[in-house]
Structure formats: structure tokens, C-alpha cells
Write a structure and sequence with these properties.
Blueprint: H1 3-12, E1 14-15, E2 30-35, H2 41-48, E3 52-58, H3 62-71, E4 76-78, E5 93-96, H4 119-129, E6 133-138, H5 146-158, E7 162-169, E8 180-187, E9 199-200, E10 210-211, H6 215-218, H7 239-246, H8 254-263, H9 272-276, H10 320-326, H11 341-349, H12 354-370, E11 378-379
Parallel strand pairs: 2-3, 2-5, 3-4, 5-6, 9-10
Antiparallel strand pairs: 1-11, 6-8, 7-8
Helix pairs in contact: 1-4, 2-12
């Protein structure tokens, strides 16, 4: 059933059957589907909870799909656009985040706006697999979009699921990174299962929580000089780039770099376009702090000109392995060595931090185990 036909079906084809409880299977692991799976970071978090088994996934980009297949070889993987997927198996939980470029504030030129309609395909997957719970993740801006309001109206109007959404900072759940993301949970259960916060800004001095995990804690055990193994590799920047890196003090940014280079008589290393551009992000060419979480790790973290991605003390950008640690990827998650670094970095930067996903998975598993289900509506064929 196509997305447009399904929406018409949702509006006109509902019938209220006699109320009946949902029968949950008492199993050690619940069946998991990952739509828009990427490299499988969100799936990994659910697997690490010990309660979920990936059975099916969809990913249109061949490189992250290859990574997903390597990490979850038993799952049935569709490597094609979700619009071309005809059938979705039954599952207990569906997860996934439609591509966010159309909603991101970084999408200044309106690129990939077609991706804003992929929520319809997510909805089509839900009605086919009929999970007890689903989780959708995206940038916070999606919650104010007309597309999300259409999605929410379709889901709640069907009577199938109650819906709740929150913007969460992953640092509050043990990830060594300040990253705000929108999470939407839909469920047929009596209550929407959200994970309990475990960490907080240490400046709050709140005894209920552990302090945020820091950069230094996340990369503990990795040599400060990249070893070249397991994606802990230096990019070998040009000599003039290294001079620029050396000019950024602890916690500094591009404005500090310009000042220091001028003081050293090296002002010619500051491009004129940088001097003219006095507004915008203050994190460009920024140096991370060892005793704080990282700022948001995006897809081009290997380029200091794209954000605060300089190592706290070394004169280099963070490595893929360091970024993966800051995203909470376990070291045994396979990042393929035969893929280009830019492709692997994109997979890491686009991911849902696995530890964040694990915390959500644990809350969902407890709710499913309790099995307190609300009556559901059935669609007329």
C-alpha cells in the first residue's frame, strides 16, 4: 500500500472492534526492525540492552548498509530506498530516523527537501509491521515542522498509538557529547516508556545524577599520538594547517587563532574571507576541552574548519576512533577498513549514539515485559 493511499485509508477506513488486550509474547528477546538504519548504531544500542533481536532493516546507501550487514549478519537487510520496499515483517518494536537534512538548520540551501516526506514511508512500515512500540529520532527542528504534525495527527487519529515526544541531551544519559536530538515514542501500552536521566551538568551539583562524561574519560586507553590502527589515524594535514592548529589555545576558536597568528607575525595564514566573516559559529577551528563532553559530533568532524573538533592538547583534529568513542560506539562495533574515511566519518556523525539507544531500549523492554496494553483499533481492508 502506498503512502498516499494509506493516509486516505487512515482517514476513512477505521472501525472500532470490541476492546481487547494486546497479547505480548513472553520472550527473551523482542523482534526489532530498523528503518533508515544507517550503519546500525541505534540497532546496536537495542542489542546491547540484551532484550532485542534485529530481524529486518532498510538502508538505501550501500556503504552504511555494508557496515550494518557486517555487524548484524542475521538480519534481513533491504539495500534500497524505502519507497521500493514492498513488505515489512511483523515486529515488536520499530526504530529509525528519516533523513534529517531537510529539517536541519545547517540545510541553508534547502537541499534534500524531498526527505521531509519520508515520514509517510515510516508510517507505511508501522502499519505493516504493527509493533507495540516505535521510536523515531531526528533533529529537534522536526517537532515544529508541518510534516511532523501530519505524522502525529495520522498516528494519533488512527487510535493505534499514543504518542509522546521529547528533546533529549544525550550527555544526560552517559554519552560524552552534548547533542540535542528529538525522540518520538509511540506505543499501544498504557504509558509511554521513557528512560530515566542518569547524568547531569556537574555545575548543577545535583546529587541525583552522575556528572557528565568527559572527553578524557571517553578516549581513555587510546594513545594521544594516533596509532594508525582501528581508525585511530591522523589525516596528515598540510604544514600551514598545523601552524594554525598550534595557534588555537585551550578551549579557543578561530578568533583566538587569528589573534595569535597576528601576534606571531603569521597573519598571512589567515584567509581574507575568514577576517571578513565575523558572525556565525564560534566553534569553527575550536579546541575541545578534556574535562567536558564534546560538542555535537557531525559528519565532518575530521575537518577543524567545520566545528570544534581539535584535540584538547594535540595539534590535530580528532580521529574517527575518538569520535566513535565520543558517540559511545563500543570498540567492537565494526567500522570497515576498506571504506573511505569520509564515508566512515559520515556514518559515525549521522548515528544515534548507541548508549542513548540502549537506555531507551531498556525502558521499552521493561514496559513490554509488564504487558499492560491498551485496546487497539483495527483498519478495515
Amino acid at each position: 500500500m502506498g503512502a498516499a493511499h494509506f493516509l486516505q485509508h487512515m482517514k476513512h477506513g477505521l472501525r472500532l472492534p470490541p476492546a481487547r488486550p494486546v497479547a505480548f509474547r513472553r520472550v527473551a528477546r523482542y523482534r526489532l526492525i530498523d528503518l533508515f538504519a544507517g550503519c546500525g548504531a541505534m540497532s546496536r544500542g537495542f542489542v546491547d540492552s540484551g532484550r532485542f533481536e534485529p530481524i529486518f532493516a532498510v538502508e538505501s546507501d550501500p556503504r552504511p548498509a555494508e557496515t550494518y550487514a557486517k555487524n548484524f549478519p542475521s538480519a534481513d537487510l533491504e539495500v534500497r530506498p524505502i519507497q521500493q520496499v514492498d513488505a515489512f515483517p511483523a515486529a515488536d518494536v520499530v526504530i529509525g530516523g528519516p533523513p534529517c537534512q531537510g529539517f536541519s538548520t545547517l540545510n541553508r540551501d534547502g537541499a534534500d527537501v524531498a526527505s521531509r516526506r519520508l515520514w509517510q514511508e515510516y508510517l507505511r512500515g508501522l502499519t505493516a509491521s504493527r509493533p507495540a512500540v516505535f521510536v523515531m529520532e531526528n533533529v529537534p527542528q522536526i517537532l515544529d515542522s508541518p510534516e511532523y504534525h501530519e505524522f502525529a495527527d495520522s498516528v494519533e487519529g488512527s487510535g493505534l498509538y499514543q504518542l509522546d515526544e521529547r528533546v533529549l541531551n544525550v550527555a544526560d544519559y552517559g554519552v560524552a557529547q552534548r547533542r540535542l536530538r528529538a525522540f518520538v515514542i509511540g506505543t499501544v501500552l498504557d504509558e509511554v516508556p521513557w528512560p530515566a536521566q542518569t547524568h547531569a551538568d556537574p555545575a548543577l551539583n545535583d546529587p541525583r545524577y552522575l556528572p557528565w562524561k568527559t572527553f578524557n574519560q571517553a578516549v581513555r586507553g587510546l594513545p594521544r599520538k594516533p596509532s594508525g590502527r582501528a581508525w585511530h589515524r591522523d589525516r596528515k594535514p598540510r604544514p600551514e594547517s598545523v601552524v594554525r592548529y598550534e595557534a588555537v589555545p585551550a578551549g579557543g576558536n578561530r578568533f583566538d587563532m587569528e589573534r595569535v597568528l597576528d601576534e606571531r607575525g603569521l597573519g598571512h595564514l589567515v584567509p581574507p574571507c575568514w577576517r571578513k566573516h565575523r558572525t556565525g559559529s564560534y566553534d569553527v577551528f575550536g579546541r575541545l576541552w578534556g574535562d567536558r563532553p564534546a560538542t555535537t559530533i557531525r559528519t565532518e568532524f575530521h575537518k577543524p574548519e567545520k566545528g570544534r573538533y581539535l584535540h584538547p592538547v594535540e595539534h590535530r583534529a580528532i580521529t574517527v576512533r575518538e569520535a566513535a568513542r565520543l558517540m559511545s560506539f563500543p570498540d567492537d562495533f565494526i567500522l570497515l577498513n576498506d571504506q573511505p574515511m569520509t564515508a566512515v566519518a559520515r556514518q559515525v556523525g549521522n548515528a544515534v549514539p548507541p548508549l542513548m539507544a540502549q537506555r531507551i531500549a531498556e525502558a521499552i523492554a521493561l514496559a513490554l515485559d509488564a504487558g499492560q496494553a491498551a485496546p487497539v483499533l483495527e483498519l478495515v481492508a
